[in-house]
Design goal:
Blueprint (H helix, E strand, L loop, with lengths): L3 E2 L5 E4 L4 E15 L16 E9 L6 E2 L4 E5 L4 E12 L7 H6 L6 E8 L4 E15 L1
Antiparallel strand pairs: 1-8, 2-8, 3-7, 3-9, 4-5, 4-6, 4-8
């Protein structure tokens, strides 16, 4: 299994505040491949081979270290050349398992980095843009 992650994040933000209450991701992306190994999945969310994920990095006396498990933000439609807009909101009131705990684990000064992922070589994740907004309480 060849899980590919970009070395550098596509975008990152530094959390400025004590309590991260909400984070919004707006992603314009698509995917395509050079093979047609899963024709039945084309233009659907079945068997996606590219996605974006959030990685939390914590400043230390040395380089940034990964502080939490990476969390998948969204997946792309299987082999669609048409970019899609994905709006993903994580809020501490969210009932999705793990969202509240993930948000509550983020500390002031942590860096939330958005990385592009793909499953293996022939798949290309095409990104037109990513925006991230973080809302902190006092």
């Amino acid at each position: 299994m060849d899980l590919y992650r970009t070395r550098e994040p596509y975008i990152s933000i530094t959390v400025k505040g004590r309590y991260l209450k909400r984070i919004e991701f707006r992603i314009w992306s698509g995917t395509s491949n050079d093979t047609s190994i899963h024709e039945a999945c084309r233009n659907s969310y079945r068997r996606p081979y590219s996605w974006t994920e959030a990685i939390v990095q914590r400043p230390t006396s040395g380089p940034l270290t990964t502080a939490l498990q990476p969390r998948q933000i969204q997946v792309d439609i299987h082999d669609s050349d048409t970019p899609r807009h994905h709006s993903v909101i994580w809020d501490i009131r969210d009932l999705t398992p793990g969202v509240k705990e993930w948000l509550e684990s983020i500390q002031d000064g942590d860096v939330i980095a958005v990385h592009l992922r793909r499953f293996f070589g022939p798949w290309r994740k095409c990104v037109l843009g990513i925006e991230v907004d973080a809302y902190c309480g006092v």
